[in-house]
Amino acid sequence: MSSESLRIVWVYPDLLSTYGDRGNALILASRAQRRGFPVEVLEVRSDQPLPATADIYLIGGGEDGPQALGAQRLIADGGLHRAVAQGSVVFGVCAGYQLLGSSFFAKGTKCAGLELLDLSSDRGPTRAVGELAGDIDPRLGLPPLTGFENHGGRTHLGPEAAPLARVTAGVGNDGATEGAWRGKLLGTYSHGPALARNPALADLLLRWATGVHQLPPLDDTWSDRLRAERRAAVAAAARP
Amino acid sequence: MPLRAKVASSVSRTAAALSRAAGRGDGSVIGGWIGLKIDPDLLAHLAAGRAIALISGTNGKTTTTRLTTAAVGVLGKVATNSFGANMPTGHTSALAKAGSTPYAVLEVDEHYLAQVLESTEPHVVALLNLSRDQLDRAKEVAMMAQLWRAALVKHSDVRVVANADDPMVVWAATPPPNHDHRITPPHVTWFSAGQRWHDDSWVCPECGSTIAREGDQWWCTGCPLRRPEPHWTVEDDGVIDPTGAWHKVKLQLPGKVNLGNAATALAVAAEFGVRPVDAVLKLSSVTSVAGRYAQVERDGRLIRLLLAKNPASWLEAFDMADEAPTLLSINARDPDGLDTSWLFDVDFSPLRGRQVLITGDRAYDLAVRLDVNDVPFQHVRTFAEAVRAAPPGRLEVIANYTAFQDIRAELDRVL
Lengths: 240, 415
Prior knowledge:
The structure holds two protein chains of two kinds.
Chain A: E1 6-11, H1 22-33, E2 39-44, E3 56-59, H2 64-77, H3 79-85, E4 89-93, H4 95-98, E5 103-106, E6 109-112, E7 119-136, E8 145-157, E9 162-169, E10 177-182, E11 185-188, H5 194-197, H6 199-210, H7 221-238
Helix pairs in contact in A: 1-6
Chain B: H1 3-21, H2 28-38, H3 42-47, E1 51-56, H4 61-72, E2 78-80, H5 88-98, E3 103-108, H6 113-120, E4 124-127, H7 141-153, E5 159-163, H8 167-173, E6 188-191, E7 211-214, E8 217-220, E9 233-235, E10 238-240, E11 246-248, H9 255-271, H10 276-283, E12 295-298, E13 301-307, H11 311-320, E14 326-329, E15 356-359, H12 363-372, E16 378-379, H13 383-389, E17 393-399, H14 401-410
Parallel strand pairs in B: 1-3, 1-4, 2-3, 4-5, 5-6, 13-17, 14-15, 14-17, 15-16
Antiparallel strand pairs in B: 7-8, 9-10, 10-11, 12-13
Helix pairs in contact in B: 1-2, 1-5, 2-5, 4-9, 4-10, 6-7, 7-8, 9-10
Organism (chain A): Micromonospora thermarum
Pathway (chain A): Cell wall biogenesis; peptidoglycan biosynthesis
Active site (chain A): 94 (nucleophile), 191
């Protein structure tokens, strides 16, 4: 942690907050507070400079126009690059995931990304809409990923980025893999919001940010039930 | 009416009646569908000769349509699609069923506004608001505003009644003049009905700059787009008309939101020449709208149904609801939208301190949301269990679309 409290920055909620992305900030803050970490959540709009000294940066989903504008402003601002260089955690969802790569397509145009993750995105043949599930990279030691995806992009990973998960339902990056991670940067197509559906993923980000390897367990009754219900729904939909 | 249209109209009415008799809903969709199959121009034929108002927007259109129908009723018979069947099939069915009427007030799904403008050539169009709704399939808000704008440019003769508080609506209602094609923007009457939800209008649709807000006012920090001075406003429990006269509005519908809807209805009716002083009396006759706001007594519980479909309408429902035990029910079936992420766009903290019960297909999504919102709750499996869990007295029920319909069916299709 860079200061007395855990600083979480929600990046550009005015542009990138289409799919309940506030939820990821709320879940993260709540899970940190319940472990006794003082938390500060900063909502930084796209017309404000992005502080480079926070612990966790959350970048949410958005439609094409706001995504392109968000990427432009993040590149011009430079704050996120400085933060990553200092070891901050970044979690990107959907449009916010795509723009961490080298390029993405918005409104039919190829746009420059932030080049923080070794990946690029283009347009797929169909829009991927529906439940998304996958087995997460065993090195991260997390239970299966669950979420809801809604995107027209396909994402291709380079050698420097590892897939977050192997897809068991839905499309994700390309029907085989979903999301990506490297170091303390992680991206996913999953909303739901992702951290509400995957509290263990929220805890991973907290461990990365705090350096605390063993976080005290929390009462996850309701998210456990939600996960079980979604898993059952995906299984039921897959049955012939 | 041409013979083909007459036949189509008659078959449409018969099909709707059969569907109702078979217990398959109110029949307004199937009737219209069959009529339009026989005569694709049936809606235009049925619309011809009537003075028509179209009411569109993300939220409040069913209620505003109902209130406007009551207000315009001062002048004579009004046809309307009062069952919320708000696509061209529903309009066709409603007009066929109503027979000949001098007036029609039609609720229009925002995606179909351009098409219905084309076929009905209305006298006035009311634009209520635009916000996020069913994200897994609806168009993004800015694109919706663009579609409205493009449609209005082609109808510069229509009168527009639009919400001055919603930047997206203001932008949509004021297309630039196109001198090459001699297109002048339509005349706009502005109303202010208040807007609680701002999260879809921080970015200017014209130039991409940030929209600033202070009190009621809003303005773009990068271009001239700003809040126009409204002609109709809400004050205390009444509405101020363009002459500055205040009219007390006695509604049987709850909340400030419905007072705003009443202001809109008065503004639309005024475009037909209805004096607000005459119209306000009619507004108080509206008790419930397709089951919304309906009150039903069951086992000593006075149950009131509120529909909330998207983040903006949840904020409004909290405003309407009494501080009483509250049941929340959430589904994510096709008509609701399949993605429940939006639950995190809603701040449920107004419910703290009330007994909160939750149910529905997606109650667990809601449970996780309420948990992180510090709102204590109890999960119940059925509506009947919810009724038993609440003490006698008022029970507020807030539900999204299909959850609302499920509960309505349990309460025997209350109207």
